[in-house]
Amino acid sequence: MNTKDRILQAALALYNQEGIRSVTTRHIATAMGISPGNLHYHFKHTEDIIQALFGQLTASYDQIVQDIAQHSIQTIEELHQYIDSSFHLIETYRFIFINFVELASWIPSIREAYQQLISKREKEFSHLFNNLAHNGVFRTDISSTLQNRLVRQLFLISDFWISANELTDQLRGEEALAVYREDVLSIFVPYLN
Amino acid sequence: MNTKDRILQAALALYNQEGIRSVTTRHIATAMGISPGNLHYHFKHTEDIIQALFGQLTASYDQIVQDIAQHSIQTIEELHQYIDSSFHLIETYRFIFINFVELASWIPSIREAYQQLISKREKEFSHLFNNLAHNGVFRTDISSTLQNRLVRQLFLISDFWISANELTDQLRGEEALAVYREDVLSIFVPYLN
DNA sequence: TCAAATTTAGAACAATTGTTCTAAAATCAA
DNA sequence: TTGATTTTAGAACAATTGTTCTAAATTTGA
């Protein structure tokens, strides 16, 4: 792996572990055994590192969305699989979700990229709902305003479940995934057939 | 108002407006026209300021809970009133909710105080549910595991709605309150009679 | 009123941070 | 091989930050 990617890797690990507050470019450099000068040769500004990591996140998310579009979700098992893979993504880029608001106000391009992500997800979710309704998993008498509220709830869980978990139970790995899955599904429960 | 309280007031305003990342003790001092030395005479460390503000938050919340305990919620209108006053509290201490995880890991006493807040809220919510069920507003066939999930959803909304709003619509004032109210109530909708 | 306690201003300090600069080392391309 | 390009190390810089220190001003209380 080249230095640029190694920097991103080291930065991600440190941001996730120590939090963006205490991690500096010097920390990242010393953690991976290179000089600060070298780090700033590859990333002139600290924001550039975070911006690149956010780019990785959106790229991975795009991949998931694309996979769904090709092979659309029709059963509960497939829904589980989707939930699992999106949770994995959130966990991988924990620090972004934990500091989302701060990052968005600090780095404008992140706010813009998030807006695009949102509209992509909105389409994806309404697609998902329609699919599940069409296959009889879901009730068909759900109004569009209600569907909108469900989407809002799903967004809230996707974006902030990891923060809530950090404040309360601090579950990790499989245990965390199980509860996350349950929490996401509990939104659907009242509307299942 | 004495200097100590004025510092807290100025700090709260700045943290809410600029975010904890860019606000320093010097900023707070110059914003209110006192010297840095004076500020640190009243609050030796920056954490002490944030800790005091968090104390204000929990104290205000305790007040709300106490009011409810005395005059318990039985109608939808009273539920609205409760939602409104808790939203007001969240909005007043925005920065805490926006940086909750970071603050909790930075200042251990905040994490501890939050744990206590959580258990207080859990009791309060189950009380609320039972009241509403008893008064026929709510269905009575809701299992305790389901109730637990509802509580989790309510916590997620209470603690992170303001963050989600910041990332997306950035609603303010009355408009924000209206949507918040709607989002909280939409959790109850499937279980109303 | 006057001495003691409290509050305040502002200089000063040490540590840290993001970033730049320079020169050396490594890699590449012909 | 050799000359150019890229990568790297590490010193250096300027700005900032939290905090401390000292002395002056203000308030308090008897």
UniProtKB/TrEMBL annotation, chains A, B:
Q: Does the keyword Membrane apply?
A: no
Gene3D superfamilies assigned to the protein according to its UniProt record, in alphabetical order:
Tetracycline Repressor, domain 2
Statement: the UniProt record of this protein carries the keyword Disulfide bond: no
Residue stretches spanning the membrane: none
Q: Which UniProt keywords apply?
A: DNA-binding
Domain HTH tetR-type intervals: 1-61
List the stretches of this chain annotated as a DNA-binding region.
24-43
Q: Quote the InterPro entries the UniProt record gives.
A: Homeodomain-like_sf, HTH-type_TetR-like_transc_reg, HTH_TetR, TetR
Q: What is this protein called?
A: TetR/AcrR family transcriptional regulator
Q: What is the lineage of its organism?
A: Bacteria, Pseudomonadati, Bacteroidota, Sphingobacteriia, Sphingobacteriales
